[in-house]
Each structure stands twice: as structure tokens, then as C-alpha cells.
Design goal:
With 105 residues, the protein is α+β, with helices and mostly antiparallel strands. The chain contains 4 helices and 3 strands. Helix 1 crosses helix 2.
């Protein structure tokens, strides 16, 4: 468990016709510090773009509320910074991952 975002993020970006450099903010769930670090390094993400307001380790959230917490953090931060694209991603038990791409209009 844990490395799913390293595979889900590129797949979501491909479907959106974007690459990692196009994204202004990444909300990558921190199930474990080592898991989040691995995913970000594997994808070559700019650390300044990842969880700029703190992730799950800093903010916490109830079990099952990962996506809601990430989106509630991502969208206001995109608005505040004038960013256009954001990505949320999380790991799921048994090694799976999920990711979504958001565009501010």
C-alpha cells in the first residue's frame, strides 16, 4: 500500500492532456511520510508544489475523507494563488491509487 499515486497521477495527467510541469498544486495524500516522499521523487514533482498548506500528516482528516479534505484544500489555494491546474491523489489498500485533475475557470 502507498505507491498508487506514483502510477495514478501520470495516468490522470495523460487523460487530461497535461504533464507534471503544467500542474500548479499537487495534493498527494500522506498515508505515511515515506510513501508520499517516494511518490513525489518517482514522479519528479517540485516539492514547492506538493501539499503547500500541509498534507494529511500536518492537517489530519477522518478515515474516508481523504478526497474531500484534499479538494477543500486544493481549490481555495488555486484561487488564492491564481493557479489553473491542480491534482489530488491518494493511495488505496492493496496498492491501488486514485488521482483527479482540477481546472480553475
Amino acid at each position: 500500500m502507498g505507491i498508487g499515486p506514483a502510477y495514478a497521477i501520470p495516468e490522470a495527467l495523460k487523460k487530461a492532456g497535461l504533464n507534471t510541469d503544467d500542474i500548479d498544486i499537487y495534493e498527494v495524500n500522506e498515508a505515511f511520510a515515506s510513501q508520499a516522499t517516494y511518490c513525489c521523487k518517482k514522479l519528479g514533482l517540485n516539492p514547492e508544489k506538493v501539499n503547500p498548506k500541509g498534507g494529511a500528516i500536518a492537517l489530519g482528516h477522518p478515515l474516508g475523507a481523504t478526497g474531500a479534505r484534499q479538494i477543500a484544500t486544493l481549490l481555495p489555494e488555486l484561487k488564492r494563488t491564481g493557479g489553473k491546474y491542480g491534482v489530488v491523489s491518494m493511495c488505496i489498500g492493496t496498492g491501488m491509487g486514485a488521482a483527479g485533475v482540477f481546472e480553475m475557470e
